[in-house]
Amino acid sequence: MSTTPQSRMPVAFLPHGGGPWPFVEFGLPRAEIDGLSNYLKQVPTLPRQKPKALVVVSAHWEERVPTVMSAAAPSMLYDYYGFPPASYKISWPAPGNPALAAQVRGLLGKAGFATAEDKHRGYDHGTFVPLKVAWPNADIPVVQLSLKAGLDPAEHLAMGRALAPLRDEGVFILGSGNTFHNMRAFGDPAPYRAAALQFDAWLQQAGTANAVARDKALADWARAPAAQVCHPREEHLIPLMVVAGAAGVDPGVTTWSGTFGGLVGSAFHFG
Predict the structure, then answer these.
(1) How many Å separate Cα 130 from the centre of its chain?
(2) Cα–Cα distance between 150 and 242 in angstroms, integer?
(3) Would you state the pLDDT for residue 2?
(4) b (16+ CB within 10 A) / e for 94-126
(5) At a CB cut-off of 8 Å and minimum separation 6, what does 258 contact?
(6) Which residues of the chain are under the pLDDT cut of 70?
């Protein structure tokens, strides 16, 4: 297939906030809700043309090997607890795409990854929450891809590189996580604000560096300033590695920087 940079899809890393935050009230400041919502509503404008499909890597799904959701009509997976009853009635009926799921497996297989499929798993909140804001009509097919157990950053960069050809076929690759994720901080953010700012500044520098420096920095993210305070466990950062790998040589741009739960975070767009 002959393509040009103008027809190639970008890739993006989206902050998905916490729980069902845009759809039910549970004490978040209105300014934070509006700030992240307004960013997510702009995500469909990042590509120059409407994507044919989305491949989404969510922080909320890990498997022994990279695994794709392969249902034609995925269900909902309300993988949170303690929220108001309306949180468990949210609907986002985006179609799946079994053919694309098989293609994802094929590309990963060519890169040396063992893979699997799951015909029964539904969209978790790392997917349906931000994408319901971005694409409320649920009119684009979606394939969700898991993280690989062990959360090795270099492996996830390699996963992204393997998936990069999808960009030339109208597929928008998205990572969904958060650039700060320490659950202890959300009840009392003040002691963590300096660490969040320090790590976010490093991450913005790394994410917008040239591709070689970017991948080297992200592969060694745990050595960054305040990294392990911001991510005691790194599952919410690792989707960024997949996105950065799929970006190839495309430069990164910080497309959003704001606070959620009183702590700073960022979004990135490549291509």
Answers:
(1) 9
(2) 14
(3) 37
(4) bebbbebbebbbebbeeeebebebbeebbbbbb
(5) 32, 35, 36, 39, 264, 265
(6) 1-6
7, 169 contact by CB (below 8 A): no
pLDDT reported for residue 26:
84
Contact criterion met (CB below 8 Å) for 226 and 185: no
Nearest CA-CA partner of 196 in 177, 179, 218, 220: 179
Domain residue extents for the chain: 11-270
Contact 57, 150 (CB under 8 A): no
What CATH superfamily classification does 11-270 receive? LigB-like (3.40.830.10)
Question: pLDDT of 13-66, one tens digit each?
Answer: 999 999 999 999 888 899 999 999 999 999 999 999 999 999 999 999 999 999
Q: How many CA atoms lie within 13 A of 102 on its CB side?
A: 4
User: What pLDDT score was predicted for residue 4?
Assistant: 47
